[in-house]
Amino acid sequence: MFIHSVEGLPERQLVPEGRWRVEPASSRVGFALHALGGPIRGSFQEFAAEFEHPRGAGVLASLCAQTASLSTGDRRLDGYLLGSGMLDAERFPQITFRSRRIQARDDASFRVPGTLTVRDISRDVSFHARIQAGPRQESGFALSVALDAELDRRTFGIDLPWRVEMFGVAIPHHVRLWAELLALPADSTAAIAA
């Protein structure tokens, strides 16, 4: 599993104070859906994300993926998904998410509500999350975050011709968005207190 348990870390320090910058080389952002011909999976090759925990305030998170960097491993499918009928990467070059807070669901999982913007349409969404902070031998402390949400593409203006939409089977309405993120301190204030 991407997230490793760290014993003895106080709950209040789950996301230590300071700014945490996500390392793209050690992170992934992607999507999955179950289409008529089988599952479709893809990822965004270019993205940036960070977490910020100001002293005495809640945790804020932001993620920005470059739409045109989407890759499924099938160039023809990529062209279709990035075209004007779907994500329209030429007109809408970025997909963004900005959180308002992180809420504990239980000891191991969290909820991250925020605003997702796709095709310049913004909607409130909530990601399920698993978060751990702890030591890494090579780089001091690190923050591991796994996010997952299921969304209806139609709420972001991604509609297909009626012959395709009729039963929602060729390209289903629901798409799973996910991210596995590794963040390192962006400044000297992001440190675990003794």
Structure characterization notes:
The protein has 194 residues and is mainly beta. The chain has a single domain, classed as Lipocalin (Beta Barrel), CATH 2.40.128.110. Helices cover 6% and strands 48% of the residues. It has 2 helices and 12 strands, in the order E-E-E-E-E-E-H-E-E-E-E-E-H-E. The protein has an 8-stranded antiparallel barrel. Strand 4 and strand 5 form a beta hairpin. The longest helix has 8 residues. The chain is elongated. The two termini are 27 Å apart. 24% of the residues are buried. The N terminus and C terminus are likely disordered.
Which terms summarize this structure?
eight-stranded antiparallel beta barrel; single chain; Lipocalin; 194 residues
| Whole-number total of structural domains | 1
Average pLDDT, all residues = 81
Percentage of residues in helical conformation: under 10%
CATH superfamily placement: Lipid/polyisoprenoid-binding, YceI-like
Helical run tally: 2
Main β-sheet description:
8 strands, antiparallel, barrel
How large, in whole angstroms, is the Cα Rg? 18 Å
In terms of DSSP E residues, the strand content is over 45%
Q: What is the N-to-C order of secondary-structure elements (H for helix, E for strand)?
A: EEEEEEHEEEEEHE
Query: What's the arrangement of strands in the largest beta sheet?
Result: 1-4-5-7-9-10-11-12
CATH topology: Lipocalin
Instruction: Using the 3D structure, state the CATH architecture.
Output: Beta Barrel
- Any low-confidence stretches, pLDDT <50, length ≥5? 1-12, 165-169, 188-194
Tell me how many strands there are: 12
Assign the CATH class.
Mainly Beta
